[in-house]
Amino acid sequence: MRLWNLVIKEISRRKLNFALGLISIVLAVAVFAGSLTLLEAHDLRTEQIIAQKERETRERMAVLEDDYRKIMKNLGFNLLILPREQNLSDLYLDDYAAHTMPEEYVTRLSESRIMSIRHLLPSLQRKIKWPEQRRTIILIGTRGEVPLLHRDPKEPILVAVPRGSAVVGFEIASSIGLEAGDEIQILGRKFIVEKCNGERGSKDDITIWIDLQQAQEMLDEPDKINAILALKCHCIGNEIAQVRREVNAVLPGVQVIEQGTKVLTRAEARDRAAVEARQAIEAEIRNRAELRREGENLASVLVPSISLAAGIWIALLFFANARQRRSEIGILRAIGVKSSGVLYLFLAKALVMGIAGAVIGFVLALTVTFLWQKVPQPASLLDPRLFALALLFAPLLSLLASWIPVFLASQQDPALVMKEE
Amino acid sequence: MLELRNVDKQYIKHGSRIRVLQDISLAVDKGEYVAVQGPSGCGKTTLLLITGALLRPDRGRVLFNGIDLYNLGVKERGEFRASNVGFVFQQYHLIPYLTVLENVMTPDLARRRGDTLNRGLELLERLSLSHRRNHRPAELSAGEKQRAALARALITGPELLLADEITGNLDDRNAGIVLDFVKNFVNGGGTVMMVTHDEKAAAVAHRTWSLAPVFSE
Hints:
The complex is a heterodimer.
Chain A: H1 3-13, H2 15-75, E1 77-82, H3 88-94, E2 101-102, H4 104-110, E3 119-130, E4 135-142, E5 165-168, H5 170-176, E6 183-186, E7 189-196, E8 207-211, H6 212-218, E9 224-225, E10 227-233, H7 240-250, E11 255-258, H8 262-324, H9 326-334, H10 339-372, H11 384-410, H12 414-420
Parallel strand pairs in A: 4-8, 5-7
Antiparallel strand pairs in A: 1-10, 1-11, 2-9, 3-4, 3-10, 5-8, 6-7
Chain B: E1 2-13, E2 16-28, E3 33-37, H1 44-51, E4 59-64, E5 67-68, H2 74-84, E6 85-88, H3 100-104, H4 116-126, H5 142-154, E7 160-164, H6 172-187, E8 191-195, H7 199-203, E9 207-210
Parallel strand pairs in B: 3-8, 3-9, 6-7, 7-8
Antiparallel strand pairs in B: 1-2, 1-4, 4-5
Helix pairs in contact in B: 5-6
C-alpha cells in the first residue's frame, strides 16, 4: 500500500470534486494556450492572406499587362507629321514645330486611302508675345478633325474651335480670371472664351486654341500648318515603320515620329496598378495587425483573470476537500504518517489535476483554434514549446492554489481531530 | 512498561481554562489490560491520547519501556506510534474510499512491512470479515466497522493497544466479538488501555482505573 494508491482511489471515489477542479484548470489552460495559439494562427492566416493577395495581384497584373497590350494595340499609334525642314532637336527643346508645310498636305493625306490612319488633326502652332496681357503664350490654330473622306464618318476625337472663339489653358485662365463667355483680345482680334481647360501640368496650361484659318491670318501664314497629329494609327504587325512608309509614299520628305510610346504608357498604367495593389495589401496588413493587437489586449486581460478565478476556485475546492477528509488526516497522522505524507496526498492530487487539465485544455485550445481559424496546415500550430509551457503552467497553478489549504490540512493536530470526532 | 508520572493537562476554550488532568500517575505492566472509567468530560480520551504520544501534556512525563515519549521529536513520536501503538476509536475513522482490506493495510503507509497483505487477510479471517474485505466502510455494519478498525490497529503487531469506547456503538454480539479479540491480544502478550463506560468491557480487564473530574477554573 502506497500513498499514491490513496491519491488515485480518492480521485476515482470523489469524481465531482476532482472534475470541478479539473474543469477550472482546463478552462485556464484553454484560455492561456488558446490565446497564444489563436495569435499564432492569426499570424499564419495573415501570411496566408497576404501571400494569396500577392499571388492574386501578380496574376491580375499579368492579366492587366495583357489587357493594356490589347487596349494599346486597339488604340494604335499617335503620330506627329512634321515638315521636312523641322529640326527635331528644336522641336524637343521648344515643344512645337517652327517650320511650316502646306495645309493641302492634310487633304492629300486624307484622300490617299491610307488604311492605317484613322484621325488627322492639322494645326498651326507658334509661341507668341501676347501684347494685350504682356506675356508669352502658345497659340494653336486648329480645324479639329479632318474626315477621311473615303471611309464612314467617325466619331471625332477633337472638336474644332469655331471661328471667333478661343479655348484657354488653365494657367492663363486662372491668372487672368477668365471664364467661359468672357471676351479677350489677341493681337488686336476679339475672341469669346468658349472653354477654360482644367489643369494638365503641361504646355497646354499656357496655350490658347483658336480656329486654324484665323491663326493663319494672325500669324501671316496663309494655308500653312506646321504639324499633323495622326491618332489611332493601325497597321499590320503593329509597326510604326509600316505607317511611316505609307505616309512618306503620299507626302515625300515629311518626318513621322511617334508621340508618346505605348510601352511607356503601358508601364505607367502598370505602375499605377501595382501601387494601388501594394496599398491594398498594406491596408490589409495594417488591419490584421490591428486585429492582432486587439487579440493581444484581450488575452492580456483574459488569461490572468481566468487563471486567478481558477486558482481561487481550486483553493476553495481543496479547502472543502481537506475539511471533508479531516478524520482521514487525523487517523493517518495517528498511525504515524508524517505531515509530509499528508501534503503528498493532496499535492499529488493537485498535480494530477494540473497535468490532466494541461493536456485536455491544450487539446481543447487547438480544437477551438482549428475550428475558428482556417489555418492551411493545422499541424503547424502544434507547438511543443507551448505544450511544455501549458504542462508547466497548469500544475504550477494547481499546486500554488491548493498550497494553503493543503498546508493547513497537513498541520492539523491529530489529537484534536480524534477528540472532536 | 508504560508509566505516566504527574501528568497535567488543561485546555483553554472561549477564554476559560479547563483543567482535565491533574497530577495523574499510572503504571501499566506488559500484558496488562487496564480499563479506564470515569464520568463524561473527566479527561479519559485526553489521557489516552497523551499515552499514545499524540498529545503533549502540560506537565509530567510519559515513559514507554523507559523512553520519555515527549522528549522525542514529532517525527520520532510518529515512528514510535507506527511501531508500537495501535489505536481504536469509537467512531472507527475508516477511510471511506478504501476497501476494508485496504483500510486494514493503511499503517503500511507510515512504515512499510514485509507481509502486510497476508497479515491483513489473516486478521480479517480471525475477525470474521473475510467476506467483506473488498467492501467499503459505508457498506458495513457498526460491528463490522469496529472489527475492521481493530484489525487496522493490530496489523503492525503493536505492544500497546489504546482503545476509546470501542464497544460503545455495538450490540452485545459484536461487542462480545471485539472484546474476545482484545482478550486474545492480551493473552498473546499485548498491553491494553481501554477507555470505556461499558461494564462488560471493564469486567474482563485486569484492572479498572477510575478517573475523577478535576476542578475547572
